[in-house]
Amino acid sequence: MKQIAVIGNGSCKEGSEAWRLAEEIGGRLAEAGVTVVCGGLGGVMEAVARGAASAGGTAIGIVPWTSVGDANPYCTHVVAAGIGHARNIAVVASGEVTIAVGGEWGTLSEIGHARSMGRPVVALRSWSLSGQGEMESAPGVIPAATPEEAVAAALEAGRG
Q: What is the pLDDT of residue 1?
């Protein structure tokens, strides 16, 4: 089964735009038969896991410390990484594609790690990136305007 990582702001509140977007993405991914991988905690992570669970899907949460009890209640499976924020690498490495929903500095680091691994990143109201030379157009970062577009882009990128 295909796995797609979903990353974003861990402190967004239920009902916020980021929460609603992530929850819809989780549901759409589950309906497509995809396993969701996330950081296992709150905010976007909880919303995407809840969306996946409500659609009968699977959500793997990779929590930063040593207690699986730290995970949000919607994670189907939990991995206690025991390595703090370094677990962000495991999150994006576990998905064939990563979808970023909004986000702060941790999300930006995960985008960088995913791209350094050659994993495509779909950005939904997330970081807009630019660079110089080969990095000028942020290669491998695909902008999306809606959850539907984000999931379609992620599924397409995962085929390539």
A: 67
